[in-house]
């Protein structure tokens, strides 16, 4: 079950630019893990998604160093803060928040079907750059705390605010969120909480393979 869930979740995530947590994270909870342990285990497994997707995307796309630095500088502090806060929230409240966030993200995606179909580059003012950074910080907090779909939310933010086309935004998200945000969240949660170590090997295999396959599909299919 874990292998099938991990493979399916990460194929779709790498294909669409995030969203492994929409499938994999709730399944870990349904299989009996406490919220904090499920989150930490999912986070660490998702780093393999970033590795698999990065291997494929780096062969196709070059990243803008300025945008890379911005995503890391604003997002990583948010990830650490979110991970520290969520462990103090009761499981029930965290699960309700997870459900609300997941449904909201689905409704937003349905209502914005044309989002990211073509690139719309734009020069940002200082104020717009600050707002963009604040958005990345908030998404980073959600990534560290609720995790579900926040990679996809980052992709949508890069499309909406920074004018990237969807395919290019996916590359940024899978490399930077998949590797650096999720890696930072996994380390923070691992230090402060517990992980289900016996489940990790199969989750890592599913994430690595699924990440590569999904990234390959997104590149060749658009």
Counting DSSP E segments of at least 2 residues, the number of strands comes to 0
Class based on secondary structure composition and strand pairing: mainly alpha
Runs in which pLDDT lies below 50 for 5 or more consecutive residues are none
Estimate what percentage of residues fall within beta strands: under 5%
SSE topology string: HHHHHHHHH
N-to-C span? 29 Å
Shape: globular
| Biggest sheet layout | none
Rg calc: 16 Å
Treating each run of at least 4 consecutive H or I residues as one helix, how many helices? Answer: 9
Mean pLDDT: 87
Helix content: over 70%
Description of the molecule:
With 222 residues, this protein is mostly helical. The chain is 78% helix and 0% strand. The protein is built from nine helices and no strands. The chain has helices at 2-16, 20-30, 35-57, 65-86, 91-111, 126-145, 150-162, 166-192, 200-221. Helix 3 runs antiparallel to helix 8 (166-192). The longest helix has 27 residues, at 166-192. The protein is globular, with a radius of gyration of 16 Å. The mean pLDDT is 87.
Keywords:
mainly alpha; single chain; 222 residues; 9 helices
What order do the helices and strands come in, and which of them pair?
Elements: H1 2-16, H2 20-30, H3 35-57, H4 65-86, H5 91-111, H6 126-145, H7 150-162, H8 166-192, H9 200-221
Helix pairs in contact: 1-2, 1-9, 2-3, 3-8, 3-9, 4-6, 4-8, 6-7, 7-8
